[in-house]
Every structure is written in structure tokens, then in C-alpha cells.
């Protein structure tokens, strides 16, 4: 059935907002709706509530892979230069830390090819994440 046929049967259908099916979709829709809401007390209409923006980005980014987060938000220093990485170091991180090869390579590049520093940073990020859960 097309939208035109549905609108003919229900004339108020245009005014209704589609309901999100999952809880994550509802949270994202709420966060995006908060972005559209204007603060009446603010002088400039172009100001956007930063909390609403960050909440929307977190819900849209998803917790699966941290997509949309910068390297600093993931616990890695920003990459600014090309770094030659020894394949033996990549293999070491893959085998000892059970990392995918791409993640091990990124971790090594972020720490200037230093395998020890990369391993310390990886372990520290997991310990910080664990302590934050407690």
C-alpha cells in the first residue's frame, strides 16, 4: 500500500511521527529532536546545545566500534606522521594481545613503532575501562 493510499484512509497521517522500533533508534531520535529544539532564552538562534550534540553523536556513533570518535577519544594519540613499523612487532601484538592486525598496526603507528609503549598503552586502556565499570 502506498503512502497516498494510507493518507487517503487516514487524513491525520501526515501529522504523525513514525515510531522507532528499537530502543537505540528511539534514543537517537530523541537526541536528534533535542538538537532541533530551540532555547528561548538564548540570544543567538544559531547556538546549539552542546550536550544535545554530544548525546546525539554518542547514540549515532554506536558502541560497537566507536565509529566517529577521534584517535584521542579512543585512547590513542593522533597520528601526524608516517611511521615504519616492523612486521615482527605487529605479529607480537597480534599474538600476545589477541588484536586484529589492523588494530595492532594502528597501535604501533600511534606509538612511533615502539612495541613496548604500544603494549603498555593497550593494557592501560583496558585497565581504565575496567576501573570505570566498578
From TrEMBL:
CDD domains with a match to the protein in the record: UBA_HYPK
Start and end residues of each stretch annotated as Disordered: 1-50
Protein name as it appears in the record: Nascent polypeptide-associated complex subunit alpha-like UBA domain-containing protein
Stretches with biased composition (Polar residues): 1-10
One Pfam family of this chain: UBA_HYPK
Domain of life: Eukaryota
Gene Ontology terms: biological process: negative regulation of apoptotic process; protein stabilization
Domain Nascent polypeptide-associated complex subunit alpha-like UBA, first and last residues per copy: 83-121
Amino acid at each position: 500500500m502506498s503512502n497516498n493510499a494510507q493518507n487517503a484512509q487516514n487524513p491525520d497521517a501526515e501529522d504523525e511521527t513514525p515510531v522507532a522500533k528499537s530502543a537505540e533508534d528511539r534514543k537517537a531520535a530523541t537526541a536528534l529532536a533535542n538538537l532541533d529544539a530551540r532555547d528561548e532564552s538564548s540570544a543567538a538562534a544559531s547556538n546549539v546545545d552542546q550536550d544535545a550534540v554530544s548525546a546525539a553523536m554518542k547514540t549515532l556513533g554506536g558502541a560497537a566500534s566507536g565509529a566517529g570518535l577521534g584517535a584521542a577519544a579512543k585512547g590513542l594519540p593522533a597520528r601526524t606522521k608516517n611511521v615504519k613499523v616492523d612486521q615482527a612487532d605487529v605479529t607480537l601484538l597480534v599474538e600476545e594481545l589477541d588484536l586484529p592486525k589492523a588494530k595492532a598496526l594502528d597501535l604501533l603507528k600511534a606509538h612511533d613503532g615502539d612495541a613496548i609503549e604500544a603494549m603498555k598503552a593497550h593494557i592501560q586502556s583496558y585497565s581504565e575501562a575496567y576501573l570505570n565499570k566498578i
